[in-house]
Amino acid sequence: MKSKLLQEIFSDDSFSEEDEPNQEERPSFFQRYFIKQLNKAFLSTLFMLIIMTMGIIFTQIKKQPNQQDHKESKFYFVGEIFLQIGLFGFAGGFTNWVAVKMLFDKIPFLYGSGVIPRKYQELSLVIKDVVMKNFFNSVCILSFFFFYLLYRSKLPQIKGVD
Question: How many CA atoms lie within 13 A of 118 on its CB side?
């Protein structure tokens, strides 16, 4: 019974040519530009932009009839805090994006942009030297084995691993 049902579902004649996706279709603007940029940094910067906008709106809410100044309202106080948090968070996220963009992409007429691809060989040699000198010297290796032998009875044991 199951095999017949599976054969009917996965048989070639169950699909027509109209159901197959067109290979020549281009992705939409949303798929090309927005989905590609969707990462934690972008989402947190967008969230800070929303918080900053809420702060601007809250600070502009007018006073109640029984208040002398609109700065005495609770909305104004909350709006000021939201505005500060959002402004500093958005500025930090935006500058981080620009800095990373400048490291990897060459931007015309901007000094220092594209330094990683341009000096890749030199950077890899410097990083290799730093790692070899700081982590694989005799002092580090001996201290690793000394502490391993000293504390190996206290390390968690994994069953089935020799």
Answer: 11
Q: What is the pLDDT of residues 28-54, one digit of tens each?
A: 766 666 666 678 888 899 999 999 999
By the 8 A CB rule, do 48 and 89 touch? yes
Listing DSSP states for 73-137 in one string gives SHHHHHHHHHHHHHHHHHHHHHHHHHHHHHHHS--TT-TTTTHHHHTHHHHHHHHHHHHHHHHSS
Q: Which amino acid is at 138?
A: S
Kindly tell me if the per-residue pLDDT of 156 is higher than 90: no
> What is the pTM for the complete model shown?
0.54
The candidate with the shortest Cα–Cα distance to 52, out of 82, 23, 80, is 82
* Averaged pLDDT for residues 5-23: 51
Residue 125 to residues 65, 120, 141, Cα–Cα distance (Å): 70, 9, 22
Residue owning tokens 């918080």: 51
**Burial of 82 by CB count in 10 Å (0-12 exposed, 13-18 middle, 19+ buried)?**
buried
List the end-to-end C-alpha distance of the chain, in Å, as a whole number.
47
